[in-house]
């Protein structure tokens, strides 16, 4: 169950710490509140702790996000972009894709993938706080490479990927987020 790809041990450790938190909080409530009776015992509680684990769709969301990033990168390449960097991280955050447009604009692309619109459209996930973080990451990426934005046109972009995983994904590239 936990050996799924890289990071399986980390997910298992995260799950176990979550399950232990559930178990510990239940024990604390039974010890401090005499009206709270522990009638099921510790072994049943561990089972409950496993059932109450973090949502399993986190793995689905991660896989969907990775697939969406791949689709977005291929879409950008098909439009004549050159992929310069992917999944670059620093203290400020992460940029999904850095791509050079045919016109020479260096785009810092955030990819948002949705399999449905229950949580809104992908563009709705880009808040002012997220834009500020994207700017800091862009600045860190440029600084690491000694690139001065005055000498190079740069852009914050969004690739919106609507895809249920079965049919053809719909990719929209929005350039120049402000």
TrEMBL record:
SUPFAM superfamilies: Restriction endonuclease-like. GO terms for molecular function: nucleic acid binding. Belongs to the UPF0102 family. NCBIfam families: PRK12497.3-3. Pfam families: UPF0102. PANTHER family: UPF0102 PROTEIN YRAN. This is UPF0102 protein HMPREF0576_1036.
């Amino acid at each position: 169950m936990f050996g799924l790809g890289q990071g399986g041990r980390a997910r298992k450790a995260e799950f176990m710490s979550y399950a232990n938190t559930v178990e510990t909080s239940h024990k604390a409530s039974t010890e401090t509140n005499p009206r709270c009776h522990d009638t099921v015992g510790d072994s049943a509680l561990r089972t409950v702790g496993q059932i109450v684990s973090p949502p399993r769709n986190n793995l689905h969301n991660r896989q969907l996000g990775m697939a969406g990033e791949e689709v977005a990168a291929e879409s950008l390449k098909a439009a004549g972009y050159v992929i310069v960097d992917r999944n670059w991280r620093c203290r400020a955050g992460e940029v999904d894709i850095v791509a050079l447009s045919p016109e020479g604009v260096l785009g810092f692309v955030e990819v948002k993938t949705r399999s449905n619109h229950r949580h809104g459209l992908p563009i709705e996930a880009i808040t002012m706080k997220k834009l500020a973080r994207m700017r800091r990451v862009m600045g860190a990426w440029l600084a690491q490479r000694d690139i001065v934005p005055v000498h190079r046109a740069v852009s914050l972009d969004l690739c919106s990927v609507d895809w249920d995983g079965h049919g053809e994904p719909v990719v929209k590239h929005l350039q120049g987020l402000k």
